């Protein structure tokens, strides 16, 4: 079940607050615990809080701390981007959202406001954030001041952008539409949107667009002389009292804001009298400009009136004040009860909420993004901490990764090697290592050494292994680390930074052995591409697998895919697609595909199929029309090691993809191999994979 919904807009002042308020009221009527989250908020003065968040939290009395309801301010995002740390932005947003998702039944996510520095990037940012949170989207746009063609063009562009990134658009809302044009707006959206996208049009509501006297006072930094209790009055229009009173009274409109110099007693008193007269419209307030105050006698007269509207004094001149008032865009505040209720009632009148809620509750994300995948790995490792052994304890990359893993408290670690040499390397690298958390073992001087030697001898004596050979082999860090796993003194091992693949996995094959029913140990890489995670297998172990071995690699890879949250759609790769190709190599792939279909009819599989047809929807459907795998494969099985290894490295280098792995499949307990060119990130990610495998996936 989906647990979140993203509200996105194309511009500032679109009226998305109305949508947020209406949805929050509707959701709270359906479920008890609803959270609220804003990935990026506008910058605020010290001590000030984001108005959107304050309004939602206070009005609906949500059990949520303010600081937990957003990730970054706009200036923080700009600074991160300038420092080349864009990845940290997404990581933090995902982490904070997921924390709310764990605590609430549903989370309403409101996108950014398109104001301030960096607003040019905000539309793409909202697309990326929604994609990485795996959330469906409601798009809101304002029709105020736009032609039909202009509004529909921007909405169509927005829909295509979200859809091209595999972000599901559930609904589209044209807001602030003239009442007589509502049907035109809905029909216009229906022309370019598929039927499954709901469309709504909401009229312009003057009472929501008009600023309150409280907002005007804040913008003008005014001093309240009278009527503080009426600051929620809304200004429907404004006009300047610069003419004689008899002429000015003709220009008053309902809820007019009167702007006049502070020494114009005639205008002030005339406007106040008109306010209580049944023959004239009510006014919302009076702004006195130029820093001028009425004389004491006028003040005394005002104080004696039975009805007083807010009267505000400002230092600025009439011309500037008029321009500034005209530029004010109204907001909704936590204490703006009337505006909130108007927003909710307007939402309920024009949005069919029950079918919409059913759509996003039943929504399933199209796939998992690289950032979300990496986040899920860390969270799963934290759920059940495992003990991993790293045999190559004097390698700087191993030690650097170990420091990071221990700092995040993801695993318990043992490193193998000479203790004094390891400590010297740690100090030279200035790693922030908690030495109490790091277990260092020198195999030949350890308390377990003789027991390990005897155990290995008993396991391998039928292979002509004597005690001397057993002692020599157990002095090797790969054998010692593997024996730790066999004896239950560690849960998994990661090696290969300084050793060959054979050196790493040979001990595991000798006495860890393969799982029941598995005859082939194989490997997969989790390829974190720009907008998806694909599983590549086998790219590290088997040079020329037979059809039976290829089928087993496929089934193991599908199980690994599911275990890590990726729906397996399997492409058995070859140099031709479908039944067109001939030759020994393509026939082997075709045979392997048939074996998988017989053994596991539940799996979605296509083969043989070319790489482009497997990953490109247009190519895939042209070559294999109707296939549920072609163009959308998530598990790609290569026909041999040469093809697989070269392809994963080419994809990694040319696209900048992160390749996590290889992760070995088929062993009774997890042992994973690193490449000798591995980075600290490679080691970090492989240890986490190993820990998750050790949890019994």
UniProtKB/TrEMBL annotation:
Q: Which InterPro entries match?
A: DRTGG, P-Actrans_bac, P-loop_NTPase, P_AcTrfase, P_AcTrfase_dom1, P_AcTrfase_dom2, Phos_Acetyltrans/Butyryltrans, PTA_PTB
Is the keyword Acyltransferase in the record?
Answer: yes
Any Pfam family the entry gives: AAA_26
Domain of life assignment: Bacteria
Q: Which reaction does it catalyse?
A: acetyl-CoA + phosphate = acetyl phosphate + CoA
What EC designation does it have?
A: 2.3.1.8
Cite the GO molecular-function annotations of the record: phosphate acetyltransferase activity
Which compartments is it annotated to reside in? Cytoplasm
Keywords recorded for this protein, A-Z:
Acyltransferase, Cytoplasm, Transferase
According to the entry, every stretch annotated as the Phosphate acetyl/butaryl transferase domain falls at 372-691
The pathway this protein participates in, as annotated, is: Metabolic intermediate biosynthesis; acetyl-CoA biosynthesis; acetyl-CoA from acetate: step 2/2
Q: Which residues form the DRTGG domain?
A: 215-325
Entry annotated with the keyword Lyase: no
Quaternary state and partners of this protein?
Answer: Homohexamer.
Function, as annotated, reads: Involved in acetate metabolism.
Could you tell me which NCBIfam families the record lists for this protein? Answer: PRK05632.1, PRK09653.1, pta
By sequence similarity, the record places it as follows: In the N-terminal section; belongs to the CobB/CobQ family.
The text the record gives for the protein's domains is:
The N-terminal region seems to be important for proper quaternary structure. The C-terminal region contains the substrate-binding site.
Query: What's the protein called, per UniProt?
Result: Phosphate acetyltransferase
Q: Which organism is it from?
A: Salinimicrobium gaetbulicola
What lineage, starting at the top, does this entry show? Bacteria, Pseudomonadati, Bacteroidota, Flavobacteriia, Flavobacteriales
Question: What is the gene name?
Answer: pta
